[in-house]
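Is this the right way to post structure tokens for a design question? Let me know if I should format differently. Anyway, here goes:
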């Protein structure tokens, strides 16, 4: 291995170490406790070294946000694969969203630390856009299957996302954790949302 290759590998290993220690702090104390200085102390490097890889704390949180959206999209996509009907797909997607938040709560908190992202943010971040497009595809399948083309699909996607996130946010505010299975009110809200897709005005 040449000198340049060895240096590149060492840099990659250090970046991985920064990410791992950052996540360890987040898991123990929450994402608000994360700071560049604390990361530097944990890996026994100087603060300027950390800045070579991440310009600030927000850059590290952005890394975890994108990672979280990739994982969430993968979980949602798996939930709708090989499912018989579009309505069942949408139900499965909603439940998979809940399960992700319950299983990956710290990731979810980082992803939605300031609430649902704006349309501009979603369009500029591929990982967010991929997830919103998957939701839109599943909603469109329900609309097409029920010949209800008057539905504003983009509006419904935003409504669905707001509904799913809203119930999870309430769980976090009320209990600081999320139950393993969706609550009855969550399920009822999803069923009511589906009703608006399959029934014409």
């Amino acid at each position: 291995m040449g000198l340049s290759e060895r240096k590149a590998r060492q840099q990659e290993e250090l970046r991985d170490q920064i990410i791992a220690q950052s996540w360890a702090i987040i898991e123990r104390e929450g994402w608000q406790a994360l700071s560049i200085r604390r990361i530097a102390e944990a890996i026994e490097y100087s603060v300027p070294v950390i800045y070579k890889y991440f310009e600030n704390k927000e850059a590290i949180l952005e890394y975890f946000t994108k990672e979280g959206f990739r994982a969430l999209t993968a979980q949602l996509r798996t939930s709708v694969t090989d499912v018989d009907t579009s309505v069942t797909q949408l139900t499965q997607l909603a439940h998979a969203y809940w399960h992700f938040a319950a299983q990956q709560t710290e990731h979810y908190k980082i992803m939605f630390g300031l609430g649902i992202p704006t349309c501009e943010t979603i369009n500029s971040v591929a990982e967010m856009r991929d997830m919103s497009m998957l939701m839109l595809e599943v909603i469109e399948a329900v609309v097409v299957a029920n010949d209800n083309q008057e539905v504003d699909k983009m509006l419904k996607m935003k409504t669905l996302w707001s509904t799913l996130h809203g119930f999870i946010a309430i769980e976090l505010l009320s209990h600081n954790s999320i139950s393993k299975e969706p609550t009855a009110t969550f399920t009822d809200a999803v069923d009511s949302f589906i009703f608006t897709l399959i029934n014409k005005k």
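Format looks fine. Someone answered above. Worth noting: The CA atoms of residues 40 and 47 lie 5 Å apart. The chain has two domains: 1-55, 61-198.
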